[in-house]
Amino acid sequence: AFLDRIDELNPTLNAFLHVDREGALAAARAIDERIAAGEQMGPLAGVPIGVKDNFCTVDMPTTCGSRMLEGWVPPYDSTVVRRLREAGLVIVGKTNMDEFAMGSSTETSAFGPSRNPWDTDRIPGGSGGGSSAAVAAHLVPLALGSDTGGSIRQPAAVTGTVGIKPTYGGVSRYGVVAMASSLDQPGPCARTVTDAALLHEVIAGHDDMDATSLDLDHSGLVDAAATDDLTGLRVGIVDEFRGEGYDEGVMARFDEAVRRLEALGAEVVTISCPAFTYALPAYYLIQPAELSSNLARFDGMRYGLRAGDDGTRSAEEVMSLSREAGFGKEAKRRIIIGTYALSAGYADQYYGQAQKVRTLIIEDFRAAFERCDVLVSPTTPTTAFRIGERVADPMAMYMADLCTIPSNLAGNASASFPIGLSDDGLPVGLQVIAPTMEDTRLYRVGGALE
Ligand code: GLN
């Protein structure tokens, strides 16, 4: 049924870049046989899932939304994908994304934008807009995302779905094509809080193949999602994330959600996190710096696109032509910014300063979590914008991640939950932020609100 729905709607939504109909049916049949043979399988056995196209999959291409990797089939599965297969989930295909996960709309994908099922003239968020569109349109009940600056939460907010960015290190990055390694974190996309928790429990856990992997107990997430009482929970409203630039309809739903939290027993306070004001500029130095280094491997020599190799050119010329042909405009912009920010003579002024701001943001979180158990804000200042509206203005595009970025810089757990529709009829998300390693708190709040 899901495959038929993909056939029907994907030509409009462009949520999937690759669908493996035969592979999915074969995987589903194999699981049916194991269950028929009496094997006890987990709760997600047989459930279809879409996988963002930056997770390595041995049996499907992994393009990262880039011409650079068009048609490339990895020689191994990412740890998360391996865990999905072991738990019996059925991978139906790979979902569209901004090129190498840079963007907030999927418009930087080399394979065209995905569309928001609520209004197909609008963006489904980014970079994981293929996953959010697929889940919102019921093409699959679950999907995988990766969140470097908001790419799970912002797409969830603008499509009325649930998106979780686990604590950095909670879910293995092994085999997820690196964008900005100190910020990247894989996580679940789902339609309900319990579905997200079920998937989170499957993909989380320590992995020897990821040097930054944490050994955490993730067994309480599904139980936490069943909560409907928030008595004693201290909720802090981030004072910096309101005011100018925030849609009235977004703020109206946000204020209502806060009142519902109070009605469920939570104590609400307002908390100032002054360094959050500098999170966006700090991110747009640190992220391009790490990205420029990570994307250096796409040189046309080892794998991926090779251009201009006609036997007359030097290796340097072929590298240069391959990168010219393979990368889109945003990738090039960030490679240049990142290389500049790291260059001798400028590294202290730019990269070094940004790292200091990062420390101040961590300090703000530490102080805030002495006074409250979770922080809340709107996930995004506005609802889904129109396709094309922000492509010519990178700063306007970057503003979509204003509220989500601090959690990536600090590494703590953060989520977006749907809290109704704005005056324009489009979904609004509530961002909930918990301290590092306290991911259960996200599910407790999300579950109580649902
Ligand atoms: N939109 C942000 C960026 O362009 C976040 C991307 C992400 O989380 N992958 O960098």
Automatic annotation (TrEMBL):
Cellular-component GO terms for this entry: glutamyl-tRNA(Gln) amidotransferase complex
Domain of life: Bacteria
Any one of the GO BP annotations: translation
Entry annotation: catalytic residues: 52 (charge relay system), 127 (charge relay system), 151 (acyl-ester intermediate)
Broadest EC class assigned to this enzyme: ligase
Pfam families in the record: Amidase
Catalytic activity: L-glutamyl-tRNA(Gln) + L-glutamine + ATP + H2O = L-glutaminyl-tRNA(Gln) + L-glutamate + ADP + phosphate + H(+)
Single GO MF descriptor: ATP binding
InterPro entries given in the database record: Amidase, Amidase_CS, Amidase_dom, AS_sf, GatA
UniProt keyword annotations, A-Z: ATP-binding, Ligase, Nucleotide-binding, Protein biosynthesis, Transferase
E.C. no: 6.3.5.7
Domain (Amidase) ranges: 1-442
Role, per record: Allows the formation of correctly charged Gln-tRNA(Gln) through the transamidation of misacylated Glu-tRNA(Gln) in organisms which lack glutaminyl-tRNA synthetase. The reaction takes place in the presence of glutamine and ATP through an activated gamma-phospho-Glu-tRNA(Gln).
Subunit structure: Heterotrimer of A, B and C subunits.
Family in the record: Belongs to the amidase family. GatA subfamily.
Name the record gives this protein: Glutamyl-tRNA(Gln) amidotransferase subunit A
Protein species of origin: Tessaracoccus oleiagri
Phylogenetic lineage: Bacteria, Bacillati, Actinomycetota, Actinomycetes, Propionibacteriales
Gene: gatA
